[in-house]
Amino acid sequence: MKKTIKLIITLLIFNLNYSQQYDLVVKNGFLIDAKNNINKTMDIAIKEGKIASVERKIDASLAKKVIDAKGLVVTPGLIDIHTHNFYGTKPNSAYSNGFNSLPPDGFTFRAGVTTVVDCGGAGWRNFITFKEQVIDRSKTRVLALINIVGRGMSGNPNEQDISDMDPKLTSMMADQFKEHIVGVKLAHFLGYNWKPTELAVEAGEISKIPVVIDFGASDPVLPLNTLLNEKLRPGDIYTHCYSDVKGRTAILDENGKVRDYVFEAQKRGVVMDVGHGAGSFYFHQAIPAVRQGLKPNSISTDLHIFSMNGGAKNMTNVMSKFLNMDMTLEEVIEASTWKPAQYIQRTELGHLSEGAIADLSILKIHQGNFGFLDVQFKRMKGDKKIVCELTLKDGEVVYDLNGIASQDWDKQYQ
Questions:
Q1: Candidates 1.20.1250.20, 2.60.120.10, 2.20.28.120, 2.30.40.10; correct CATH number of 24-75+357-374+384-410?
Q2: Is residue 197 over pLDDT 90?
């Protein structure tokens, strides 16, 4: 009798495990997936860290865990292509193993971000330190733009040292760490000199990766038209596109119109990236530009110790600004997922195709009266705000704001 009961229990457990063919199913969420042109309510099944199925209805009994996303928006994991994560304690090193950068895991998952790109913190001299110290120790997927300056973004005078801008050594490091390095960065150069830009583009040419330019300042001002339409290639990225700082040309002219050559550059494939930061996003630039049709190709935060508590705050906050600036939710999500995945040549990310990496962001679109700040602490009012409810990376729950992936405490023993 005991053997019979034991056999029955074993068979029941076997049948239960067999029937539960998925690790997790997200049900009833409004799915936005730009690559697959999906904008409707769908269920998503996940198995062994990959998307196993995307269907109108998936039987909940087939899953070990079920998340009900009714009333929420389900997207691919958000991709922030401008962050600063080479944190450390090296004095006078700014964003390169210094005090200005942030450990990624504290600022990513809670905003729905599963992948970040450190924007030039490390150069060829110290990239391995960055890899061992940050990339290898983070749950967040950390990619990198390698700085054309060998010492990275370590502040002045290092960032002005043209003799330390070596395209061949930069390219060698990029080729050695293709899994992690997705582009070349030039930032903060001061002076009327195109040489740094040309060296960065040379490194990008050698390794066949994009270049990101954080245009510095000079007196006289280097012509923005020359940068956008002569120096940069299609696929290269102009970050801080809505900035207005001394020493560089703003995208709006003196009459508040987007300069024709900016539209021309975007049309030929130069990527306009937000790169909000603490000094590079102005409503008096962004709002008129978006209304005139210059929408960002990619939305990014430029998150660091100065921007995290300022106007930028986090990825969903920056996305919310554009949701209140004549961009549709679908456009905002695409500029935060599938588009940046293409720009950094990581097309395995940013979508929810069957077989893809199971990175998901589950978002709630709040309606109400909200205020958003730019870098001058000028306020824009809005009635929509994006908040991350839950984040999955590689099929695992890494952030759950309201416990929607968990069982109620008083039901766990029932």
A1: 2.30.40.10
A2: yes
- Residues 161-170 have pLDDT tens digits of 999 999 999 9
Q: Left, alpha or beta for 190 (phi > 0: left; psi -120 to 50: alpha)?
A: beta
Task: Work out the burial of residue 50: count CB atoms within 10 Å of its CB; fewer than 13 is exposed, 13-18 middle, 19 or more buried.
Answer: middle
Q: How far is it, in rounded angstroms, from Cα 250 to Cα 244?
A: 5
Q: Answer for the pair 98, 154: CB distance below 8 angstroms, yes or no.
A: yes
Cβ–Cβ under 8 Å, residues 86 and 122: yes
Q: Are 228 and 238 in contact (CB under 8 A)?
A: yes
Give ∠ CA 17-23-27 in degrees, rounded to 5.
115
Element (H, E) at 79: strand 78-83
CB atoms within 10 A of CB 347: 12
Q: Kindly report the pTM of this predicted structure.
A: 0.94
Sign of the dihedral defined by the CA atoms of residues 322, 323, 327, 332, in that order: positive
- Mean pLDDT for 135-139 is 98
Do 272 and 290 meet the contact criterion of CB atoms below 8 Å apart?
Answer: no
Residue 205 and residue 248: Cα distance in Å, rounded?
A: 25
Q: Find tokens 């200005």 and name the residue.
A: 100
Pairing of strands 360-373, 237-238: unpaired
H-type helices in 113-259, by residue range? 127-133, 167-176, 195-207, 224-226
- Topology of the domain comprising 77-343: TIM Barrel (3.20.20)
Please report the pLDDT score of residue 6 as a whole number.
Answer: 54
Find the radius of gyration of the CA atoms of the chain: 23
Averaged pLDDT for residues 356-363: 98
The letter for the amino acid at 165 is: M
Distance between the two ends of the chain, CA-based, in angstroms? 27
The DSSP result for 24-40, as a single string, is EEEEEEEEEETTTTEEE
Burial environment of residue 139 by CB neighbours within 10 A (0 to 12, 13 to 18, 19 or more): middle
77-343: same fold as 24-75+357-374+384-410?
no
| 349, 357 Cβ separation under 8 angstroms | yes
